[in-house]
Amino acid sequence: MGNREDLLDGARRCLLEKGYTRTTARDIAQASGVSLAAIGYHFGSKDDLLNEALRGAIEEWGDRIAAAMAGAAPAEAGPAERFEATWASILKTFAQTRPLWAVQFEVLAHIERTPELRSSFAAANRQARLGLAELFGVEVEALGPRRAETVGAYFQALLSGTAAQWLMDPDGVPSAGELLEAVRTFSAGLGPAEGAG
Questions:
Q1: Of 136, 155, 169, 173, whose CB has the highest number of CB atoms within 10 Å?
Q2: Quick one: pLDDT at residue 75?
Q3: How far apart are CA 105 and CA 101, in angstroms?
Q4: The model's pTM
Q5: pLDDT at 58
Q6: Domain total for the chain?
């Protein structure tokens, strides 16, 4: 690996061990075995390096989820079976990715006061919504990008909320089957969409 890759690797390890705000440039340099000056040379600032390292860690997590989902439900599975299988796979990843979730919630607390962080993650957030929609079997092309992104935003809200609950009380988080039952219970009371014949 070169200095740039070493810095990203060191920054990622620091993020997961110390968190976003407690990680210093010196921590990253020490963890990566690269000089402090290399941070500025390759990334401009410690914050830019941390942001890139965090984006990489989140993308890696997304790839891991997608790989786990590939065999979660049979191709002929209906929406309910796919929903439950997908959530069962996602819930299993929480224990392995606890530090990553903790860092993401920490970053959210700082995003209001850090415009560059906000804009950096806005585009990635939109892309993540489409990825989540696809994970749950939504045909993005057929639905159209805006509606697919809205459906993905629903799954993203459910995912983030469930992750927050898991961080606070891992034993109290609903199972995949309970999440499916909750969606069914609530949806039943909504009735048909307006204009549906």
A1: 155
A2: 73
A3: 6
A4: 0.82
A5: 82
A6: 2
